[in-house]
Amino acid sequence: MEIDRADGRTPNQLRPLSCSRNILHRAHGSASWSQGDTKVLAAVYGPKAGTKKNENPEKACIEVIWKPKTGQIGKPEREFEMILKRTLQSICILTVNPNTTTSIIVQVVHDDGALLPCAINAACAALVDAGIPMKHLAVAICCCVAETGYVILDPTKLEEQKMKAFAYLVFPNSILSVLPEVSSPAKGEPVEHGIITSITHGAMSVDDYFLCLERGRAASAKLSDFLRRSLQSQFSGNSSKAG
Amino acid sequence: MAAKPGTASTTYSPVDPTHKTKPSIFTDSDWVRPDSRGFHQCRPAFFRTGAVNSASGSAYAEFGNTKVIVSVFGPRESKKAMMYSDIGRLNCNISYTTFATPVRGQGSDNKEYSSMLHKALEGAIILESFPKTTVDVFALVLESGGSDLPVVISCASLALADAGIMMYDLVTSVSVSCLGKNLLIDPILEEESCQDGSLMIACMPSRYEVTQLTVTGELSAPNLSEAMQLCLDACAKLAQIMRSCLKEAASAAAEE
Amino acid sequence: MGLPNASEDLSSEMEVDAFRRLFPLRYFERHLTESIRPDARPLRKARDTTIALGAVASADGSALAKIGSTTMLAAIKMEVMTPSLESPDEGCIAIDFHMPPICSPIVRPGRPAEAAPVLSKQLSDTITSSGMINLKELSLVSGKAAWMAYLDIYCLDADGALFDAALLSAVAAFSHLKIPVVSLDYDGKIVIMSEEQKEENSETKPVNKEKRKLTLSTIPFSLTCILHKSYILADPTAEEESIMETLVTVVLDSSGQLVSLYKPGGSVLVYTSAVQDCVALTRQRVKELQNILDDAISGMEID
Question: Boundaries of each Exoribonuclease phosphorolytic domain copy (chain A) (predicted)?
């Protein structure tokens, strides 16, 4: 299981994380999230009145606009938009603001691997910043499977291209419940082990996928700690902009 | 590997260089049609209603290699921008698949055919029966084998009947190509490409009324009247086939 | 949302169709507790599936796949391109998924459906990462000419599980694909060889005598399931998809490798056990689909 990563990380080690909120003045909420050299900016506008066509007006509508670093938006970006939209829909409480639209604009600043997970984390922080009601936070992680079957986390662009397969996984943040013991849904597994979103590329064995899941869950605990800490510290830092 | 946008325009489909001499065949006096039909013989027609379950009504038609599907939606709410209207609206659209034609196309909408379909059907539909609303007739040509528009028109009227839209009569349509001295009914793609003139009639056979008549190219006056009669006779026969298709579908539904 | 008690009271005196429209979720849940679906299927059973090969004569390979009433028509047209410098002896595949206005009341002409580009991307990702097609087999003259296979998939009738049907029609079209015999002419262009030329052994030699069919090494098949509470429903219809929105699509290839596990959000979280269940269901489905495809191919060979 010995592998060398170009930047000298161990397989389970993530790149340095950083997150800052409230970086844009015009937006209702904004955040930037970076993992190593991959950096994404997210801005939230809304909730605005009315939903788009073909959307259920009894619920809040979420709209995601993906802005690539350069060039026009193509099929891959459309897919990212759809995945982000569906992921965010599942973590937001949509019944609080029915018949409204919340727009999330995702600007890619730099792509050095694990772009979609980075964007999901940024969007999630920005939603918190905008005060959109949410069930829980979400943390996203990218797991790569190499030819020989070992798994590395949070790959750079170069590593992503070399690997035979990778999976983007999104898990809920562990819930620090104020209510006494929310009933655990499935067979004793904690909530944070449930998959919100799973996207895979490349062929791998089913066992490899479960290995990814296991590693991803372990790493997501660290990520969610970081997310919670950075959100809390900034809330105490500038409590002027709540809601 | 996914398509790179730049590469799309640089590809070409290989052609057969030995296959360029065909127009000369048609000028001979005793040639036979490529599918060995008689000049005044239509291709075998096949119709089936209920091809698309998610539509209010639909039909599939196959004439030789010409294959089309027509779906009818509605009557449903008109577009917001539309003015109030006492009578219903008809909205038609014909598009081709990218692989419908021998050379790969763009699969775009055919505006000209769409408006011709609209005009051919408009006269037969009782628009007063669905005021303020719109009926959408969408056609997709899966494979183009000649006489596409007449097939779409006949198929569309069958789909409208399947959707239960009130009509005065079924609309059937047939075209005739003029090649030299000969009149060819229900031409295939090869024949259409080297025709001198053509005539297309859409009519309501039971009422003996024409809803649309189109003449293009060169047609002498005696040829024109002969071609019209040929088309009208063929339309009447086509209507029988379509009627029996509807009856079959109705009796099958009654059995269930 | 809203009125669970009201629906309880009304349901006893309401007509079934009205109840289905007004309280779709409750209507479905009533069925689920009886382990049956409104179309009389057991929860984990897929709809009847058929494949017809060679549906379009103007294409080099084509197939019509039907899962229940979801219908997909896939056709491949082969064109010639100059291969890129990085891979001089590889061809290319371009996959496009279309939702024409005939397929569903939601799609209107001039306004392409939102789902279409996403599904196109998903299909080409799946076909690429399954390694089903060896792009080297699409090479004609190294560095000079290679095949560009344009695969266009049209949805003729949209009634749920669009990805499954589209993938099935795509692999069926590839297994039906017959590459035309071509030769290189004096201008360095690729031309089709006519029947006479092949027989009389003229100076022009076909460049692809052997490579008439693609060897499909591992074929990917997929199954979409709906997760609702602890129920798993295989192969959903459009109505089911609109009511219960957590979808999981598993793609396995014929050798049992996981090609894709696709779950874009949804209100239900998936735990390990549910993933295992979905994979197991897909394993069964792969066998079924493989048989259906084999039958279709052997049926073609008899003709």
Answer: 13-133
Tell how strand A100-110 and strand A61-67 pair up: parallel
Among all chains, which residue has been given the structure tokens 């219960």? C244
C39-178+213-302 belongs to which CATH class?
Answer: alpha beta
Residues in C closer than 8 angstroms to B139, CB to CB, are: 102
pLDDT of residue B9: 47
The beta strands (E) that lie in C46-130 are given as 49-53, 61-67, 70-81, 92-98
Task: Provide the token pair at C96.
Answer: 């496009």
Q: Are the Cβ atoms of A95 and C1 closer than 8 angstroms? A: yes
Top residue of B7, B9, B54 to mutate, by most chain C CBs within 10 Å, is B54
Interface of B with C in 21-60 (CB under 8 A): 51-55, 58
Cβ pair C57:B143 closer than 8 A: yes
Residue B77 in contact with partner chain C when CB distance is under 8 A: no
Element (H, E) at A237: helix A206-237
Q: pLDDT tens digits for chain A (243 residues)?
A: 456 787 888 888 889 999 998 899 999 999 999 999 999 999 999 888 888 777 788 888 999 999 999 888 888 899 999 999 999 999 999 888 888 999 999 999 999 989 999 999 999 999 999 999 988 889 999 999 888 878 889 999 888 888 889 899 999 887 666 555 555 454 566 777 889 999 998 889 999 999 999 999 888 888 888 988 888 876 655 544 433
CB contact under 8 A, A200 and C260: yes
Interface test with chain B among C81, C98, C102, by most B beta carbons within 10 Å: C102
Cβ(C53)–Cβ(C178) under 8 Å? no
Nearest CA in chain B to C100: B140
Distance CA C50, CA B116 (A): 36
Superfamily of domain A17-176+192-235: GHMP Kinase, N-terminal domain (3.30.230.70)
What residues in B contact C90, CB-CB < 8 Å?
A: 1
Domains of chain B: 35-255 (3.30.230.70)
> What distance in Å separates the CA atoms of residue C222 and residue C250, rounded to the nearest whole number?
6
